[in-house]
């Protein structure tokens, strides 16, 4: 089969398209024929070698996979060849205290598919059967591959790590990203008043189309004042943040008393300073969010099936052009998701 392999880290990294033997399932594993696989910032971090975990090359990236079961290993009884599936890419042990309680995203033996083992930028991928989620017939492979990781990340942030109540103010950072575009829709449909940031007119226009009530220009150094003005100086109840660095500090400038910042990324920097006085006086919360559990993926696909959550797709790219897709995502001109199609 054909697979895209990262063979050297860098900006850009070095890729090759190679023919490799078809994978075979071990007990409790399945081989999935990949029909679509979304491209994410996680893939860029792998490309750059910028993840704080041991990385081995060559590696086939790709973690947001939709396809159909092709072969089942011994002991797999819940799935059959031909089943349409999405894959929960935070692979989990199923035995630790967190997995047993259903919080797979906290698994102490978690493995990132497409980072620590070969992922979906290939014609086939082999995964534990426990990572599969049924893909509803009404949701296309491309739509699934544009939502399973980014959309479920937002779902985990907004329905698992925090909660939204109707009428609350929610600020979504980075409206055109996979996480941002999903978070706007989830927040709006939960009854929130949604403010979104975007660095271009096209991104702000997208935010409004997705349901944001207000879209503000994040290239304006004073953009946090816009949030204060829109909310009548009060600030927002919840900030959905995935950029890190200085943006976290700016998010605090937008936060109401008793408000919460939920964050799942640090593209702009992992080290931040925090002024503890206003933090505890205003009784605010900073909540970490990592990945997702199968329950979040199932909920995301159910929202997609009932048309409450729509993927925003920038481009569908053939497998052979995967390196070009990496370069395009790095340029930050992408509106929504790039999906690779083997
Ligand atoms: Zn576990």
Molecular structure report:
28% of the residues lie in helices and 27% in strands. The protein has 342 residues and is an alpha/beta fold. The protein folds into two domains: 2-149 and 292-341, Medium-chain alcohol dehydrogenases, catalytic domain (Quinone Oxidoreductase, Chain A, domain 1), CATH 3.90.180; 153-288, Medium-chain alcohol dehydrogenases, catalytic domain (Quinone Oxidoreductase, Chain A, domain 1). The longest helix has 12 residues, at 150-161. It is globular, with a radius of gyration of 20 Å. The relative contact order is 0.16. The model has no long low-confidence stretch (mean pLDDT 95). The structure holds zinc ion (ZN). Zinc ion (ZN) binds next to helix 2.
Question: In a few lines, what is going on in this structure?
Answer:
The protein has 11 helices and 17 strands. By secondary structure, it is an alpha/beta fold. The protein has 2 domains: 2-149 and 292-341, Medium-chain alcohol dehydrogenases, catalytic domain (Quinone Oxidoreductase, Chain A, domain 1); 153-288, Alpha-Beta Complex (Quinone Oxidoreductase, Chain A, domain 1), CATH 3.90.180.10.
